[in-house]
Design a protein that fits this description.
The protein has 3 helices and 5 strands. The protein has 137 residues and is of the alpha/beta class. It has a 5-stranded mixed beta sheet with strand order 1-5-4-2-3, covered by helices on one side. Strand 4, helix 3 and strand 5 form a beta-alpha-beta unit. The longest helix has 20 residues. The radius of gyration is 29 Å and the shape is rod-shaped. The termini are far apart. 9% of the residues are buried.
Length: 137
């Protein structure tokens, strides 16, 4: 008394649904990876009407002389200017023992943004936090 099945199971596997899932995952990861920027600078941008809670221990001032298009850098409000090549060493010396190294940038209105970005790059390389100082309204 052998009972035979009339329907047989198909051992083949359809890959079309698997390729759809892989394609959707690929799109998801491409979109989310563009939203994450690991090379961003850590900036604390205070509003000009409020005080910030994080106090910088060191300040760097950039003075622009438009007549001859030169710039001077001053650490902690010192009257003696230093060259840009000396700024990183001075910041390293002053912020070495700090547990949360932070410095603020004070720039004239006429200072080109590339000068400020150069200071921000120093902060990025040394993992310092930066406060961009503004004047009150």
């Amino acid at each position: 008394m052998a009972i035979k099945r009339t329907t047989k199971t198909d051992a083949a596997f359809s890959m079309s649904s698997m390729t759809d899932i892989v394609f959707l995952l690929l799109i998801f990861f491409l979109v989310t990876s563009t939203l994450i920027n690991p090379n961003a600078l850590k900036l604390l941008l205070p509003k000009s009407t409020n005080q910030i809670s994080d106090k910088a221990t060191v300040s760097v001032s950039i003075k622009h002389y438009p007549a001859n298009n030169t710039f001077t850098y001053h650490i902690n409000g010192s009257a003696k200017p230093i060259q840009f090549s000396e700024v990183e060493g001075a910041l390293d010396e002053l912020l070495r023992d700090s547990d949360d190294p932070t410095f603020s940038i004070y720039a004239d209105k006429t200072v080109p943004i590339e000068q400020v970005v150069d200071l921000m790059n120093i902060a990025k390389h040394n993992k310092y936090k930066v406060i961009l100082a503004t004047s009150p309204e």
